[in-house]
Structures are given as structure tokens and as C-alpha cells.
Amino acid sequence: MSASGGTKAIVAALAANLAIAAAKFVAFLFSGSSSMLAEAVHSLADSGNQGLLLLGGKRAQREATPQHPFGYGRERYIYAFLVSIVLFSVGGMFAIYEGYEKIKHPHPIEAWYWPVGVLVFAIIAESFSFRTAIKESNELRGNLSWKEFVRRAKAPELPVVLLEDFGALVGLVLALGGVGLALGTGNGVWDGIGTVCIGVLLVLIAIVLAAETKSLLLGEAAGIEDVKKIEEAIVDGDTVTRLIHMRTLHLGPEELLVAAKIAVAHDDTAAEVARAIDAAEERIRAAVPIARVIYLEPDIYSEKRAAGTATPADTGA
Question: CA torsion angle for 115, 120, 125, 127 (degrees, to 10)?
């Protein structure tokens, strides 16, 4: 996986979640807190999610085959989508169910120092993981807001880790609040309410992730800046006089397909047109290095045809 895949952020999140999950399960066993059980399952699910992201990045590096001539770059999108499903089902729905059961059958929290101590430790560990994800994302985010970064990022790993870590931190605060209210009032219902809130939060995050990764799976065009660079690189004003139309498609986070119809002079020879296409491809790759698959179709530009007013004689029909 390339650096833009956020491998460092994924590994940091994986290490933090494994340690936190173990601590939360121990706290649940000693205290009986449903918030702790929901948080433990959440951290375990997050650990599995980071494993899926690493697996997707590894599988995406496979070479193209005759059956998959454009390679396996979209494997990363598939595994990111699987993460959203795991987060929704194992994380969110389990927490909602556990919270509902605790509200119906509340019981006091025992050994309060276990859940409180583990939650404080988890908040510290998750903060370090979240900080790593923010640092990695800032290297790619540029001037985009966080909302725009999550929506426009072509590499799914960093948005996934960012939202997971954010959800984990908010969930820990909710769990701490639920445990605190249950201890302060002596009513275990508050522990269940905190658990339900954690579940709802995870479901909402999972829905956002599913929507974004679905868009990537369907196929997204290059970003606005890359499209502009490609358009400027294609036309040299000499052999390629105009860009008639163009389509772009991400085959993976770091692989872009470019297909365009370009205008050449009507009296150019086949050799001149071939050299013009080769030169245009070189300019495109220099401007946008991830443009690895390029198809350029030469044509004679017609203003009438472009305007939709061409007659059969004009088009040669």
C-alpha cells in the first residue's frame, strides 16, 4: 500500500484498539457494565476493520491479469465497504441491542474503578491513534475542510480510520457519562442509555462510510484539480488543437483511466497524428502521474457537429 493509503494510521489504530479491547473486556467481567461490553465489542470490531483495510491494500497490489486487465486497485474500495458493514452490524446494532437489554433489566455497576479506569486509559490511547490519523490526513488534505476531505478522498483508508477514531472517542465519552450517571444515581438504566447512544453513533458513522465507499465502487472521476491539469496538458496548440471531450475514471486510489477525443489538423499524416498522441500522453502523465491508462482518439473538429447542427454531408454520413 502506498503512503497515501495511510498505513501508519491503520497500524496505530490497530495497536490501540487491540489493547483497548482487552482492557474493556476485563473491565466488563469485573463490573458487569453493559457500556463496557458494547465498547469492548466496538474496539474488537475496529481491530478487525483495520485488519481488513491492511488486507485490501495488500491484495490491491496484485498485477493485472487477462481476466482483470485494469488490475485490482478497487480491492481497497471493497474492503473499505466491508468495514462499514462490520461497523454497522457488529458495532452499532450489537450496542443498541445490549443497551436495550440493560434498560429492560438494569443492575448496578460493581467495582466501579475498573470501567472508569479503563475508559480513561482508552480515551488516552484513542487520542494518540486519532492524532496519527489527523497528521497523516493533513499531508493529503490541503485546503479542503474535513467534510470535503472525507467526501472527495479517493484512498478510502484514511477517511475510514478518521471516522472510526472519532466515533471511538465520542463513544468513550458517552460510555464514561453512562457509567458515571449510573454510579451517581445508583440506577443502572443510565448505563444502558449510554450503550444505546454508542450504538446509534456507530450506525450513523457506518452509513456515512457505506455511502462514500459505494460511490468509489461505482466509479468516480478524477478530482477537479486533476481534470484541469489533464485538460491543459492535452492541448499543445500545435498538433493537438482542441480537446473535444474527455472522461476519467479511478481504477483505484492511485490509478486513473483517461479517455479523450482530441482534435488534430485535417491534413496531418498518420505518423504525425501518432506522434501527437504519444506526446500528449507524456504530457498527461507528467501533469498527473496516476494517469496510467490513457486512450486518445484523434478527430477533426467541426463547430457544426459540436453544436449539434451538422448535416449528413458535414459529418460524412
Answer: 130
Query: CA-to-CA distance for 307 and 288, rounded, in angstroms?
Result: 30
Mark 33-50 as b/e (b = at least 16 C-beta within 10 Å): bbbbbbbbbbbbbbbbbb
Closest Cα to residue 81, out of 256, 199, 216? 216
* pLDDT of res. 3: 42
Residue 2's pLDDT is 44
- State pTM to two decimals: 0.76
How does the average pLDDT of the chain come out, rounded?
A: 86
Residue with cell 444502558: 192
DSSP symbol at 62:
S
d(CA 299, CA 240): 10
On whether the CB atoms of residues 245 and 237 are closer than 8 A, the answer is no
Q: Do 135 and 158 contact (CB within 8 A), yes or no?
A: no
Percent of residues in the chain assigned helix, strand, coil, to nearest 5 = 70, 10, 20
